[in-house]
Amino acid sequence: MANVREFKLPDVGEGLVEAEIVSWRVKPGDTVQVNDIIVEIETAKSLVELPCPYAGTVTELLASEGQTVPVGTPIIRVADGAAAAEEEPSEKASGQATSEQGAAKAEEPTAMLVGYGPRAGAVRRRRRRGVPAHAAAGEASPPLANASPTSTAAPTAEVPAPRAEGPVRAKPPVRKLAKDLGIDLREVRPSGGDGVITRADVEAYAAARAQAVAAAPEAVAAAPTPAWTPERGERETRIPIRGVRRATAEAVTRSAFTAPHVTEWVTVDASATVELVARLRERREFASVKLTPLAVVAKACLLALRRTPELNATWDEAAGEIVLKHYVNLGIAAATPRGLTVPNIKDADRLSLPDLARAISELATTAREGKTPPADMQGTTFTITNVGVFGVDGGTPILNPGESGILAFGAIRKQPWVVDDEVVPRWVTTLALSFDHRVVDGEQGSRFLTDVAGIIEDPANALLLA
What we know:
This protein is α+β, with helices and mostly antiparallel strands.
């Protein structure tokens, strides 16, 4: 008799109440191993891939794509290895041995979801419709003439084609490498035993892709985001309020009507910062870093917070206290296809400028892909919103709940500026600081904003606050 287990939706973040099923990576009949990714869910702030805690055969999906499921609700049923033998009439000759292996596995404790657990031996995967026999067995496929639909390749470059939807098998370090290289593991041909993708597989795919891009650079372009168009005769469309949109709406409403907001503005000659960024980009320390003026603004804020820690504090109504944080988890507001998110850089005040620039770049990339871990959304102590990337000069940003300060960084434009009684073209930007007036007085907010502006105008002023 097969041992059927139910996997319940876990709390992947602190206090998660529910999540939406975005896409299943498996279907009934598929064989899975411990740590195989089986489903992608959307929490209030990010997309999360859930690994399977059991090995066996998927018997039933208990939640459909697009469904919002409370934490603790069963979402999938998995039968242990014994079920696989019973469902394979074509393998009667080896059915008894398979059943014995399945029974042995049922007696083993469930492996922890860290790396891959112990294996009792190779498990034969049932071939899925549309997957060649050699692919199902993890063998190398013959060379392909063309690249995948999402890639562009020259006839001389071999780029693996996408594999059929299903669980992707790769160890955590290999998954991280693929993520860093921007590679979808479902497009990588596995060479490891039992269909496991190895580090060499990812590196080979990256090399083939690079060769393809070099051979046909004019054909490589970002796919445009399809514009939404109503169906013929449709006069209105109703969009469910959930996920990131609901979380954002609840947060800004709670903040706007709880914390008394004050916003101050300052217009800054940022020419020295623009020149500094151009010089630093030529230095060896920034050879592999995407340095932008945002990194300098972030560093300026971190230095200014040392002199005005009230901007890095929380109002604790229940305790009747103001809580000053002796660390800075710097939030960077990011616009994503799923809505506004504010992931943060932990202990950003301890980072050098190159490390800070690297962290900002990685944070933005991960957020746009919707892959920000829930932990990176929690514990922000101060936020920067870079509205300048949209060509906007400024705004009145709303505080994130629990924070006492947020800085809006506007577009840097060449404008006429008075220098030594002469009007000359300079790079000019606008900084807008919103703060919680329960925690921060006008003098403190003005001092912080002046310190940040002073560093942007003359980066040498950072030495006075370091």
